[in-house]
Amino acid sequence: MSSKQNERSEHYPTNIQTTEYGTTDENIDLGGTLEKDSKRGTNTQTDYGKPGSVWRSSDTAVEDELDSLQPFIVLSQEEYIEHHSSITQCRFSTSGSSIASADTDGVVKVWSYSPSISTSATIMSKSPLLSLEWVTNVERLLLLGSSSSSVKLFDTEAKRTVYDIPTDAMYPRIVSLSCNPAGSHFISSATKANKSSSDASSSEYLNLSVMIRTGKLWYWDVKAMKVLRQLPLDVSTVCINCTQFNHNGHLLVTGGSDGFIRLFDMQRYECLMSWKAHNGEIYCVQFSPDENSVYSMGGDGKFINWSVHRLGEKLCELGIHDGATGPFVVSGYGGYKQVQTPMGKLFAFDMEGNHVLTCSSSGGIVYRLSDKAGGLKKTLTLLGHRTPIVSVDWSTAMNCGMCLTGSMDGRIKVTTLLTQ
């Protein structure tokens, strides 16, 4: 296969609100206050070194010997603080100039970081928004999946919903959206809960592995905003947590709640192959940048590389740090514990596929992919977060690499990296 070308206060939140997704609690101490910037959106330098320096971790929980040949220089770091609850997803647009982010209150923000942090749209609906995806090749359009049987197409420039299409009420929760690279079609994964939200606690509702067992995969036409067909699933008791197309949209890879990876032929609309990849849920699955393999992360704490040409063959189990794969946990006083099941990207590659950005308890960790045992060499730790990172992205559309890290305190950081 060919390669891809392609207002809240300055203080750390201690108030917790109960939402459809999860709960926070007034008794929890999430770590005091964060360093104050001179103004919102300026470079965050306290404890992390000056812009232009290479940051090294001071967190003993993730402190290993870093790669002696540092491939990156950190130029700047911007912080976005407009979310009032834990981040669930954050994604760069195709050009890398805009960002869409969602939180556990179901609120989506569209914003930019250059020349300064600026919010262009805040999207709310009667029911929380669970998933998001930029429409490829149409920079202003954003797909949104709700918790009440609808998929929306939002124009971020006009700041209005262009389409709000109802879906099957039996599968109300749109948990994953993935757009074909050609921009003409997209996939939505819809699920239903085994319990109603009224029968479950907020913490249970967040834990999708407890709540959701069945689902559907629908293939859509973007322009007409209608479902063209339903993709077949080999078992009825599975929900698809994550999806991704390859560079030409001919293949679709999915990760399921049953621990299986499924590879679909999108010209014949059939499943080519499926195999057991993890003991438990698969939370994130992606093609490698050269598309010769597939990477997956699961609730069993494993990060695995699988062959595409010899389907189901494990190429390497990567030695990832604890806490990279989720579920993510924040603990507090009196035995309080907040658990968040992953809903966004847990890892992201640079353009060449030599490095991967991952989640951790205190910041994003960049690894160099290696042929040696373990397959990973820690290169860089991007500090600045006080709670676990739950979603990442990496844009290489501009001259510099841009890393996105969103955490459970509702803060998102954009870190600019220069390749040496």
Tag the structure with descriptive keywords.
2% helix; 4-stranded antiparallel beta sheet; mainly beta; 2 helices; 420 residues; globular
Characterization of this structure:
The protein has 420 residues and is mainly β. The protein has helices at residues 202-206, 208-211, and strands at 72-80, 87-92, 99-103, 108-112, 118-123, 129-134, 141-146, 150-155, 160-166, 173-179, 185-193, 212-221, 226-231, 240-245, 251-256, 260-265, 270-276, 282-287, 293-298, 303-307, 314-318, 328-331, 337-340, 347-349, 355-358, 364-369, 376-382, 389-395, 401-407, 412-419. Strands 1-30-29-28 form a four-stranded antiparallel β-sheet, with no helix packed on it. The protein is globular, with a radius of gyration of 20 Å. Residues 1-65 and 195-212 have low confidence and may be disordered.
Question: Mind telling me the C-alpha Rg?
Answer: 20 Å
Number of helical segments with 4 or more residues: 2
How much helix, percentage-wise, in residues? Answer: under 10%
- Shape assignment: globular
Q: Roughly what is the average pLDDT, rounded to an integer?
A: 81
What would you call the structural class?
Answer: mainly beta
Largest beta sheet, briefly? 4 strands, antiparallel
Biggest sheet, strands in spatial order? 1-30-29-28
Distance between the termini: 28 Å
Uncertain runs are 1-65, 195-212
Quantity of strands, as a count:
30
What proportion strand? 35-45%
